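Hi team, as promised in this morning's meeting, here are the two structures we talked about. I've kept the exact order from the run log so nobody has to guess. The first one is mostly here for context; it's the second one we should focus on when we meet again. Sequence first, then the predicted structure tokens.
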Amino acid sequence: TSLDVLSMRGNEIGAEGATALAEALRHSTTLTHLSLAENESGDEGAKALAEAFRHNNTLEWLVLERSSIGGDGAKALAEALRHNATLEGLALDGNSIGGDGAKAFAEALRHNSSLKMLFLKSNSIGEDGAKALAEALRHNTTLTELDLGDSNIGVDGAKALAEALRHNTTL
């Protein structure tokens, strides 16, 4: 038997626990879904997980909702996406990635060909973050779901996304 799905939502594991699980993820050959939502893993935990899934070739879903992840953690996760070919879904709702984090994900979307779902709801990405994501959507052909609800994208961000949708055939 093998463990395919691990959910540890709301267990107060913090960065130290996330880092320990990241080390295990580096060596896992079966885990496809990992949820560490609501665990206060922060940027440190996100960086450890990013390094792990950068080298992992089985993980398909990573859920880090409401985990106190800021721009630095988002940048590490986005950079890892550039090198990962198996992750299909990433949920980061309710963090604080901001515009810089959104810009990092936009850059990653230009290079990643496996991610289908990206959830960034309630992250205050702002207009600049939305514009960067919109530009990336003009070139990305794999993303099928993008959640930017409650992210303060403003009118200009909405217009940029609307224009991008005219060119994107998968969203």
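And here is the second protein, the one for discussion:
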Amino acid sequence: MGGYGTVPESSNSGFVQPQYAPNHSVPFIQPLPTETWAAGVCDCFQDMGLCCDVLCCSCCQAGRIWSAATESRPDHMSVPVCCGLLVAEYFIGGLANCLLTMYLRDNVRHKYGIMGDGCDDCCMSFWCTPCVMCQLHRELSKRGVTPGHVCCEPSVRKTQPIPVGVQSGYVDAPVCAPPQPVQYK
């Protein structure tokens, strides 16, 4: 008697019959993830404006990532998530941000078929929370659902022009950073 959830009887051929989902005539096979992350966890310094946002305004950036990841709403901040995270951090500290980041990383990973597992999400979110938030922001931006920035403009998209006659300058400096010296020839 081979029903759903039972081990099929083995035969001498070495072939195991596939399990079938209830009320379906075809095997239920979940596709394996084949994608990789657009950027690594340690690539958080590629955009210093985003890095500043995550470090200084992590609750608001988490609200933006939440809206982009779970609701597919680009450049929008979920105020309940932002305020809820602030209150939760008051009571249980940084663990609240770690748990939310772990949930968001798992959500994005499943939504876009990115390879990994829950243990990886947990470890990365616990020990590298700001870096994971930057990674999530970059991944969602690559997928066309840009979460946006809170305080600082992205340094990758908005650059300062180099004055005429200047050979070098700080072109990729974040907009919120103080002006950097320019070397004249």
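Starting points for discussion:
Residues 95-111 form the longest helix (17 residues).
The radius of gyration is 23 Å.
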